[in-house]
Automatic annotation (TrEMBL):
Domain of life of the organism encoding this protein: Eukaryota
GO cellular component: chitin-based extracellular matrix
Protein source organism: Nesidiocoris tenuis
Descriptive protein name: Uncharacterized protein
Alphabetized GO MF terms: structural constituent of chitin-based larval cuticle
Record has NADP as a keyword: no
PANTHER family linked: CUTICLE PROTEIN, CUTICULAR PROTEIN 47EF, ISOFORM C-RELATED
Cited InterPro entries: CHIT_BIND_RR_consensus (IPR031311), Cuticle_Struct_Prot (IPR050468), Insect_cuticle (IPR000618)
Keywords: Cuticle
The keyword Nuclease is assigned to this record: no
Length: 112
């Protein structure tokens, strides 16, 4: 049987600051919150693009507050935060091998 959950808004705020520039903030009574601001970059140029930057927080099952910051723009979606796993560092021997490969002249038989 599916259990439905309902949460009350603790607060909510939307503020259009300028044309195509908006902000949003909300929090729920279960500790979830979100804050975001959108903007138009390079307005009126060929490089015009929308972006949004913000963060969200929630409480993990262990009781720890988790906060994630993010930005989404023409470069894609990027999130940061202590709860996001990171890859291990590249071992020195592999790093040296990659440096060596990059130092070689291009192979003329391969198309770029």
């Amino acid at each position: 049987m599916h259990k439905e959950l309902f949460y009350q808004y603790s607060s909510e705020h939307h503020s259009p600051k300028k044309i195509r520039l908006t902000g949003s903030l909300f929090s729920l009574d279960n500790g979830i919150s979100q804050n975001a601001e959108g903007r138009l970059n390079n307005k009126g140029t060929e490089q015009e693009a929308q972006s949004i930057e913000g963060s969200y927080s929630f409480t993990s099952p262990e009781g720890q507050v988790i906060t994630i910051q993010y930005i989404a723009d023409e470069g894609g979606f990027r999130a940061t935060g202590d709860a996001i796993p990171t890859p291990p560092p590249i071992p020195p021997a592999i790093a040296r091998a990659l440096d060596y490969i990059r130092s070689l002249p291009p192979d003329p038989s391969q198309k770029v």
